[in-house]
Design a protein that fits this description.
Strand content: 5-15%
Number of domains: 2
Structural class: alpha/beta
Number of helices: 9
Strand order of the largest sheet: 6-5-4-7-8-9
CATH architecture of the largest domain: 3-Layer(aba) Sandwich
Number of strands: 9
Shape: globular
Order of helices and strands: EEEHEHHHHHEHEHEHEE
Largest sheet: 6 strands, parallel
């Protein structure tokens, strides 16, 4: 847990804790940072719902960048060749085509366009491959791209070519959270299908029975506070009853704007954050259940 490098400016005694107030009165706990070793536990006990990011939070970033993404890049052409005529693939190709048109209209440069269905597979397939490679090179998280990636990962997981990975502390702590009556949800830019595949095909077990639900970009962008409000409404709790764990600062900012409690998760290999000192940080999920 990190309570250092806090910019001291103004403190009030609130709920038996010294609190640093950032543009808000201490009664609004979501916009304050606890200044005691009990800060994590205080927030944890108030939360009815634990909302988890995946990449860099439950799962090493390297698993995504060195296993999942390369699998798609290296196998997209052969996958499309084998599955081109399927209805779900034709549907996602149409979504990719529409996304490319929107990208062009919005002024993005060098967008690989995709020919219409009236063209032959030999003409259109290379367009789809080029568009997927282009989007992945920019680390884009469009729903159409994530959906196609999810289809490919499904085949890889079910055939045993890929096994999911989570940090060692994740399963034991989530088991304890369930015993404590917490509801646990996932919110990731990866599709719900991809989330379930990852957690259902782990090297060391199956995480799915511990999860109460999943959210992806069909709910909204993780950069927008309204997306988090939608999640709170969906799981039928007040925003202040949700604790969101993420390693991404803009996600933390958006969730906090929505009224969520937020912890920044600092894992090996995660990118340093410019304003991590504005949040409580944890290095392991074990901090959530520490006595």
């Amino acid at each position: 847990m990190n309570y250092q490098n806090i910019q001291f400016s103004l403190f009030f005694l609130c709920e038996d804790q010294f609190v640093l107030v950032t543009n808000s009165w201490c009664s609004n706990w979501n916009f304050a940072i606890a200044m005691s070793a009990n800060g994590v536990q205080d927030v944890f006990h108030k939360a009815k719902v634990i909302l988890l990011d995946i990449e860099g939070t439950t799962t090493p970033i390297d698993f995504v960048t060195k296993t999942l993404f390369p699998y798609v890049s290296e196998n997209i052409a052969s996958y499309l060749e084998a599955n081109w005529s399927s209805e779900e693939i034709q549907h996602v190709i149409n979504e990719l085509r529409k996304q490319a048109e929107c990208d062009t209209e919005e002024g993005l440069k060098n967008v690989p366009m995709i020919k219409s269905f009236v063209d032959s597979k030999d003409d259109a397939l290379p367009d789809v491959v080029a568009n997927v490679h282009w989007q992945m090179s920019l680390n884009r998280k469009t729903t159409s791209l994530k959906k196609l990636q999810g289809f490919m990962w499904k085949d890889a997981y079910e055939s045993g070519l890929i096994k999911g990975v989570v940090y060692d502390d994740v399963i034991p702590v989530l088991e304890k959270l369930k015993i404590k009556g917490k509801r646990i949800y996932i919110y990731s830019s990866g599709s719900v299908q991809a989330q379930k595949l990852l957690f259902g095909h782990l090297e060391n077990g199956n995480l799915l029975p511990l999860l109460d639900g999943h959210f992806d970009t069909t709910t909204g962008s993780k950069k927008q506070s309204n997306s988090y409000l939608k999640i709170a409404k969906k799981v039928i709790v007040d925003p202040g009853e949700v604790l969101f764990l993420t390693d991404v600062e803009y996600e933390a900012d958006a969730a906090r704007e929505a009224g969520f409690h937020v912890f920044i998760v600092v894992r090996p290999g995660n990118k340093p954050l410019a304003n991590a000192d504005q949040y409580i940080t944890i290095e392991t999920f074990k901090d959530l259940v520490a006595q």
